[in-house]
Amino acid sequence: MTDELIFPPTPIRAIPVQGEARRFACNRIFCVGRNYADHAREMGVEIDRVAPFYFLKHPGALVASGATVAYPPGTTNYHYEMELVVAIGAAGFRLARTDAHNLVFGYACGLDMTRRDLQLDARAKGRPWDLGKDFEQSAVVAEIVPKPNFGAIAGQRIWLRVNDVSKQEARLSDLVWGIDEIVAHLSGFYHLAPGDLIFTGTPAGVGPVVAGDELEGGVEGLRNVRLRIGESQS
């Protein structure tokens, strides 16, 4: 017997894939914290070289590149964070680092939008970061490029401009924890599954945006991610 639902299910959020008519359905969004040393320092903390750490965003946070999003409620310090996003395309649990690459479907450019004042307030009080990180339209993802079309992660440039002014500039070789390390480590705590996304951390240069600002970021070999900041919702 088919269960009847009191409310309709939440719509599936999906991302376009290079060369495909089919789209990549989002399952979960994992985010790696403090994965560039320069960014950790600008935030007033040191990186943890023992193991990476994570926070999550719900799939409803996903928004397509090119969108206009309203300035979010509850904040006066709304920040961009440009990131490489890993798209998982196979199931895996407790993987060895040497096997982690088998789970990667592809890569994309992403923006981890952040209510910085709420995040820092929670951090100071030793509380979770949910209000600062996990909110509607806070995970912007561009078209996914399948792994064979992108090649190996090396020294590709990662960058972000706001209103055509350069704000972030680094190389993927600056990542503290590489992609295989992250996937293998995360698989020790979760049964990774197709549709999972991993935001791998942001370089230094994060900062605030206001209504009317236009953001564009990229990683060499991937489709650029774009976002426009709209007015606050009344």
Provide structural commentary.
This protein has one domain (14-230): Alpha-Beta Complex (Fumarylacetoacetate hydrolase, domain 2), CATH 3.90.850.10. The chain contains five helices and 18 strands. The strands form four sheets. Strands 3, 4, 5, 8, 9, 11, 12 and 15 form an eight-stranded mixed sheet that branches. A five-stranded mixed sheet has the order 6-18-17-13-14, with no helix packed on it. By secondary structure, it is mostly beta strands. Residues 29-227 form the Fumarylacetoacetase-like C-terminal domain. GO terms for molecular function: acetylpyruvate hydrolase activity; metal ion binding. Keywords: Hydrolase, Metal-binding, Pyruvate. InterPro entries: Fumarylacetoacetase-like_C, Fumarylacetoacetase_C_sf.
